[in-house]
Amino acid sequence: EGDTIMARDSGKVYRFDGSEWKEIQQLDSSPINEVDDRLSSQLAQTTKINLPASLAGLIPNEPLEANNNYDKLINAVNAGNHLIIDGNYHITGTGGVVSEDITISGQNGHIIIGNSELTFELHGNLSVKGVKFSRTSENSSYLFRSPVDVEIESIEFVNNEFNGNVGAISINRNVSTTKVRSILFENNKIS
Q: CA–CA distance from 19 to each of 3, 14, 22 (Å)?
C-alpha cells in the first residue's frame, strides 16, 4: 500500500501513504551498508580497458589534428585506459599526462611529437611496448619523468623506437623519496 524505503543511516523503514511518509519499522542497516560499501569499493577499482587510439578519437596521419590528438591522448591515459597506438599520430601540446598507472602499447603505432613538451608524469607503474616515438622539433625533453615522493613498482620499455630529440625517461635519483623497484629496458632502438 505505497512505496517503502529505508534510511541507511538510521535503519528506519518508511511507507508513503499517499500524503506523507510514516515510520513503520526499525531494521539493523549495518549488513546492507557493509555490502553496499564492498560493492562501491569494487566498482571504484575499475580495470583498464584496451582502448585503440582511433577509438579514443585520435586522428591518424594528419598533422593538422596534432593539438586535438594531444588532448585526446591525455584524456585517454588519464582515465586509466591501456592506450593502443594503432596508427601514426601527430601530437602537439604542452603539459603532461598524470596517471596512477600508464600502459601504452603499439600495433605498428607511431607517435610523432611536434613542437611540444609532451611529458608523462609517473605516479605509478609504467609499461610502454612496441611504440615508435619521434620528435620533429629541435626541442628535446623526456617523455616520461618521475616527480618526487613517488613509489613505482615497475617501469618497462620493451620493443620501442625513439627517434630525434626524444629522451625515454628521467628519474630523479637524487631524491631519496623517489623509489623504483624494477626497471626493464629491453630491445629498444634509440637513434
A: 11, 13, 10
Amino acid at 137: S
> Whole-model pTM above 0.70?
no
Per-residue pLDDT tens digits for 157-190: 888 888 776 655 655 555 556 677 888 888 888 8
For strand 82-85 and strand 12-16, is the pairing parallel, antiparallel, or unpaired? Answer: unpaired
Per-residue cell: 87: 596508427
d(CA 19, CA 49): 48
CA 108, 109, 115, 119 torsion-angle sign: negative
Helix/strand/coil for 33: helix
Single-letter amino acid, residue 77: V
Distances (CA, A) of 65 to 53, 75, 134, 159, 188: 13, 15, 16, 27, 28
Task: At 118, list the grid cell.
Answer: 609532451
| Distance separating alpha carbons of residues 136 and 133, to the nearest angstrom | 10
**96-99 sheet: strands from edge to edge:** 96-99, 119-122, 141-146, 166-171
**Dihedrals phi, psi of 95, to nearest 5 degrees:** 115, -160
How far is it, in rounded angstroms, from Cα 92 to Cα 65?
9
> Is 23 strand, coil or helix?
strand
119 neighbors 147 (Cβ within 8 angstroms) = no
User: Any idea what DSSP says for residue 66?
Assistant: H
